[in-house]
Amino acid sequence: MIFERFQNSPIGSLVPISGRDPRYGESFAHWAYVPDPLPETVVLTSHTWTIVAEAMQALGRLDQVGDPTFHKALIRRSALRREAHSTSTIEGTVAPLSLVLEIDPHDTAKKSKEIVEILNYVTTAEYAYEHVNERPITFQLLNELHKLLVSNTASDGTDTGKVRSQQVVIGSPTGGVVDARFVPHPPGPDLEIQVRSWLEWVNQERTDIPPVVAAALAHYQFETIHPFNDGNGRLGRLLVVLQLVRLKVLREPLLTISPWFEERRDQYQDELLHLSATGDFDRWVGFFCMAVRDQAIESSNKIEKLINYEEVVRIRCRAYNVRGVAWTVALMLIERPYMTSTWIQKHFAISAPAANAVLAKLVNIDILRETTGGNYRRLFVADEVLQIIES
């Protein structure tokens, strides 16, 4: 970490650190950055306030689009998996989006390490959203989410599900401390104090700043503190949506913010470092709110397209007298664009011939397409749904 870049930061300070890097068996003496507590308010330019207003308006539209009791419950699954794919890609975990949409986290079949990490995010997010309306974002919840996120991965170890006990670094080409682009808060009691202070700020009811600005500040602080041994980026972006749901901006977690950051990965990381070095909250809030605005608009447009698609499917099913399980499966495709006979058998408790008949009927009316060939482990896809989700 370049000492000179951060030594005059108006919103944080450098503290000396030293120790022995077990990866190299070498001692180090360096500096770590410790952010000051978040301010209660920030001064923004009129240009940034315009972006803030646009972001809030876009979130309002996203919250209102579609039927909250039906469409959003179905669309939530595909939105969550799109987010899981992008948020993991930012951290260097890459897998085809089609596979992420297809596979079931509870499937006992052997999965690649990349798919395990991505599906861990799905499980973590589902758990978080299940609890978000029942309790605030607590220290215990954070630890639970981290444990779910890194379970059965290379990062699963003694610090799983608790604030880290070792120094971590960000952007080090060698993995060494002195070569790192950024060195966050050192481990110890003060790190836990920082996390609890962050939680107190996040859970405070405030009227002095709009929710999207509060989310921008909270996201910066969480990533800068870097409280866990791994998964801070993925968990931090999940907490953005969780915070917006807690603040009643969104009733359903349908915002997929990571695709925007994925396309601007280097700039995203640069902006976080720039704020630590300069204290320029205006620039960071503007950048963050552009992401929220653009992704809220994109998410709203996709939901409208999926709802329109679902209406086309209803009309087509009525025209061909599709009923029963086949009707239900056809309407579920906006949630689950990939289908198998095995899944239908388990979900509806029907026989293999009955499930295959459902699939054949939907193929015959051009709602599904068989992708694999052969007679076993056949996979079917709703191409129109996949095209909307992947666009």
Topology, pairings included?
Blueprint: H1 3-6, E1 12-21, E2 26-35, H2 46-64, H3 71-90, H4 97-102, H5 113-131, H6 139-150, H7 189-203, H8 211-225, H9 232-246, H10 258-263, H11 265-278, H12 281-319, H13 324-332, E3 338-339, H14 341-348, H15 352-364, E4 369-370, E5 380-381, H16 383-390
Antiparallel strand pairs: 1-2, 3-5, 4-5
Helix pairs in contact: 2-12, 3-5, 3-12, 5-6, 5-9, 7-8, 8-9, 8-12, 11-12, 12-16, 13-15, 14-15
Residues in β-strands, percent = 5-15%
Shape annotation: globular
- Determine the number of helices (DSSP H or I, runs of at least 4 residues): 16
Determine the mean pLDDT: 90
What is the CATH topology classification name of the largest domain? Fic-like fold
Question: Can you offer a commentary on this structure?
Answer:
This protein has 391 residues and is mainly alpha-helical. It is built from 16 helices and five strands. The chain has helices at 3-6, 46-64, 71-90, 97-102, 113-131, 139-150, 189-203, 211-225, 232-246, 258-263, 265-278, 281-319, 324-332, 341-348, 352-364, 383-390; strands at residues 12-21, 26-35, 338-339, 369-370, 380-381. The strands form two sheets. Strands 3-5-4 form a three-stranded antiparallel β-sheet. The radius of gyration is 23 Å and the shape is globular.
